[in-house]
Specification:
With 466 residues, the protein is α/β, with parallel strands linked by helices. The protein has helices at residues 24-34, 72-91, 102-119, 139-145, 163-166, 172-179, 190-203, 232-239, 242-254, 273-286, 308-328, 345-354, 369-376, 409-421, 424-440, 443-455, and strands spanning 4-10, 39-48, 55-60, 63-71, 128-132, 152-155, 184-187, 207-208, 213-216, 219-225, 259-264, 294-299, 336-339, 357-360, 385-389, 402-404. The strands form two sheets. The chain has a ten-stranded mixed beta sheet with strand order 3-4-2-1-5-6-7-10-9-8, with helices on both faces. Helix 4 (139-145) links the parallel strand 5 (128-132) and strand 6. Bound molecules: adenosine-5'-diphosphate-glucose (ADQ). Adenosine-5'-diphosphate-glucose is lined by residues 21, 23-25, 27-28, 157-158, 228, 264-266, 299, 301, 342-343, 348, 365-370, 373.
Length: 466
């Protein structure tokens, strides 16, 4: 079996054993690598005044991590710049928030080159290289220019937008062309795969060359939909831990005679938090008889605070949550609890387990693992109900959730009411269908499908001239 090299912007070594609070991507990769004696390469999260290219290597549980520091300008231009202020909003259809600054593009190219130059000496001839997410789209191109002929795959964790949106990016063709230095390019859903294909066919003048194969820019690649899943076995183990049980009991006690409605998201404008808060407010306004029976808990740790759009949405959410409690609270009771903290994963599992309703309503989301975690944490005999955005990749798999348009507070309000009044038999039927999917299409299935496709990709032709 070839060795697997995983490359992602941030690296979270598997020693975290699933209990720490790390993002969805990192969790999935840690789980995916655990069974491979692979190498995980990426940024340490630290900066130095000047780039040194020095590697810090560590081996834990058979997985070697190789980390590099970036310099201050890289953080501003590549991470906070092109990745989080240009591509993230664009790929989530927020062209109004996308910033186009020449320095961002230069920083993005520079960091991808630095990644490639530092990784190059670690690559053995048979290694499979698996690159992750929008931060690193040009990495294969940079590696090819250094003579790397290995099979290289790319997986996009976020949506690939419709070509009408993607073409608003200056120099979009350069970014799309960089995709063709990979052998396999994977998306979360068939919809995003098709969006990429449409760009290639209608904008780049490319062609199909067999099932899921595309040809453009003088090269060809294989595309596919590979929906990411949970580490289901690990999650099941975590649910049984003392911490998870304690948290579930605590939340159950805190909501005695009431139903818990829960939302858990990074504080990000793509997650639809404002619309969700307004939806809950609408529910309270429309249902005076149900009001006292519900407590909504929204957990939303702040992220990317150095980007202005994130500070702005935080301020709006603070105001909105204050307004909801001000309007509807009584001396002995308040309807809404809004916390900006991170929780351990086992504690989160306990919180999901105590909830009657999971509210997962992103405006756009590549997949959304919280939806799957909520499902996995339910009691099979008395499960809660998932309310899920139609625009999360997860909606393609969890079809028995209550699917809503996350832009509509009315729909969210009605869905909350529907969920609260749903009888047990229907809750069990819907949950069972979702749970089967979460179990079957888990992170191992995702990894095996992608790595299988990459291993099966034909041998590379000679490296490109630059
Ligand atoms: P994210 O945008 O980070 O991931 P998501 O898939 O929901 O989104 O994963 C979030 C993870 O962080 C979950 O595992 C969750 O438990 C955890 N988390 C959230 N809030 C937390 C808190 N307060 N404390 C502790 N942990 C918390 C990106 C894409 C997604 C895609 C994933 C994986 O944007 O669409 O599903 O990658 O591909």
């Amino acid at each position: 079996m070839s060795r697997l090299i995983v490359v992602s912007n941030r690296v979270n070594p598997p020693s975290a054993a699933g209990e720490e609070s790390v993002g969805g991507l990192a969790m999935a990769l840690a789980a995916a690598l655990r069974e491979y004696s692979g190498l995980w390469f990426g940024w340490s999260g630290r900066t130095t005044p000047e780039f040194t290219g020095q590697l810090s290597m560590q081996t834990v549980d058979g997985v070697t991590t190789a980390l590099i520091d970036l310099e201050e300008a890289d953080l501003d231009e590549y991470y906070n710049g092109y990745a989080n202020r240009t591509l993230w909003p664009l790929f989530h259809y927020r062209t109004d928030l996308a910033a186009y600054d020449r320095a961002f593009g230069e920083g993005y190219s520079r960091v991808n080159r630095r990644f490639a130059e530092t990784l190059r000496p670690l690559i053995a001839p048979d290694d499979l290289i698996w690159v992750h997410d929008y931060h690193l789209i040009p990495l294969a191109r940079e590696l090819r220019m250094l003579g790397v002929k290995n099979r290289i795959g790319f997986f996009l964790h976020v949506p690939w937008p419709a070509h009408q949106v993607f073409t608003t990016l200056p120099r979009h063709s350069q970014l799309a062309e960089a995709m063709f230095d990979y052998d396999v390019v994977g998306f979360q859903t068939e919809e995003y795969r098709q969006a990429f294909e449409e760009y290639v066919l209608f904008v780049a003048g490319g062609a199909q060359s067999g099932a899921e194969r595309l040809q453009a820019f003088g090269r060809s690649l294989r595309t596919g939909a590979f929906p990411i899943g949970l580490d289901a076995a690990e999650f099941a183990r975590m649910l049984k831990t003392a911490r998870a049980r304690r948290m579930r009991d605590l939340m159950t006690a805190a909501t005695v005679f009431r139903h818990l409605v829960v939302g858990v998201d990074r504080l990000d404008y793509s997650k639809g938090l404002e619309e969700r808060f307004l939806g809950f407010e609408r529910f309270l306004a429309d249902n005076p008889d149900l009001r006292r029976e519900v407590l909504m808990l929204q957990i939303a740790p702040v992220s990317r605070e150095s980007v202005g759009a994130y500070r702005e949405i935080r301020a709006r959410l603070d105001a909105l949550s204050g307004r909801i409690n001000g309007e509807f609270s009584d001396v002995d009771w308040a309807p809404f609890r809004y916390v900006n903290r991170n929780y351990r994963r086992d504690e989160l599992a306990g919180i999901y387990g105590a909830a009657r309703v999971g509210l997962v309503t992103p405006l756009r989301d590549g997949m959304n693992l919280v939806a799957k975690e909520f499902v996995a944490a339910q009691n099979p005999e008395d499960p809660g109900v998932l309310i899920l955005s139609r625009f999360a990749g997860a909606a393609r798999q969890l079809k028995d959730a209550i699917l809503v348009n996350p832009n509509s507070p009315e729909e969210i309000a009605e869905a909350i009411k529907q969920a609260l009044s749903m009888d047990k038999a229907e809750r069990i039927r819907r949950w069972r269908a979702s749970f089967d999917n979460v179990q079957r299409e888990d992170v191992t299935a995702w990894r095996d499908a992608f790595v299988g496709a990459l291993a099966g990709a034909r041998e590379r032709r000679p490296a490109l001239a630059s």
